[in-house]
Amino acid sequence: MNTITSSHVPTRWERLKNSDLIYYFLKDKVAMFSFAIFLTCLLMSLFAPLIAPTDPYDLTSISLMDSELPPAWMAEGDENFLLGTDDQGRDIFSTILYGSRLSLTIGFLAVGLQLILGIVIGLSSGYFGGRIDSFLMRFADVQLSFSTLMVAIIVSAIFKASFGNEFYSEYAVIMLVVIIGIAEWPQYARTIRASVLAEKEKEYVEAAQVMGFKAGRIMFRHILPNCLSPILVISTVQVANAIMSEAALSFLGLGLPVDQPSLGALISIGFKYIFSGAWWITLFPGIVLVTLVLVINLLGDWLRDAFNPKIYKG
């Protein structure tokens, strides 16, 4: 009797579990520790309504009588406010959780906008070349000659002058996403353009052109998937940059309004009271912000090394 043997086809999860990326990740303790901290911050911010003792947006739960209370372990502290309160009587621990959620939301959405602009412009510049390439890259060079913060300040000032402070405050999150996205897209465009210049000379692109495929299909369905590694590495770093840009704009008064506490807004509020002794308003949000940016940058460095085996040490 003949028996038919069928070879087992690994699932996507099995291929991912046995991939070099997971192997390198499990060997790198710094990457594992950084990812654990980032995942903890992400989950705590996502579930802030369930974890936070109070809702900083609920005015009925806030009392000015509780303003500027020190952390619970200090002499004048209140056990209901673990990390103390700010100038409005909001619990610092709760505002950090909600503020982290806002900062991460702005960071991810801004990077998504950068990604869309950078991919479209970078692909078009690298694939078509010629005058289109020259125009787009000169435009990117002009923008790169200014600092990200300067571009963000100019764009935010234009938005405020055009639509007014009330409109800006009402749609502050959307405005910041647009501002930071516009300020940072050249990083993606230049990197993707360099990858496209290398990829478009390969045989699979020439074969697609001979078969009569349109330029859009060749760029997005054939070339783009081969440019994902540098895009992924840049995205991790850009999330950290976007969070820092939002914090800087909020600190300068060009970011989120006072009633929408982000990490940058909390640091800005606390800075006004730090010399009066209320150091906790700035310190604890500052520690969370620095930690969040640091672990994201460490993950970005690990990804860069993992995708480049020539420099990966293991």
UniProtKB/TrEMBL annotation:
Compartment(s): Cell membrane
UniProt cross-references to Pfam families, sorted A to Z: BPD_transp_1 (PF00528), OppC_N (PF12911)
BP-aspect Gene Ontology terms: transmembrane transport
Stretches assigned to the ABC transmembrane type-1 domain: 100-300
Transmembrane segments: 30-52, 106-130, 142-161, 167-185, 223-244, 278-300
Keyword hit for Transport: yes
UniProt membrane topology term: Multi-pass membrane protein
Residues in coiled coil: none
Record keywords, A-Z: Cell membrane, Membrane, Transmembrane, Transmembrane helix, Transport
A single Gene Ontology CC term: plasma membrane
Gene3D superfamilies according to UniProt: MetI-like
Domain of life of the source: Bacteria
Protein family according to the UniProt entry: Belongs to the binding-protein-dependent transport system permease family.
Name of this protein: Peptide ABC transporter, protein inner membrane binding component
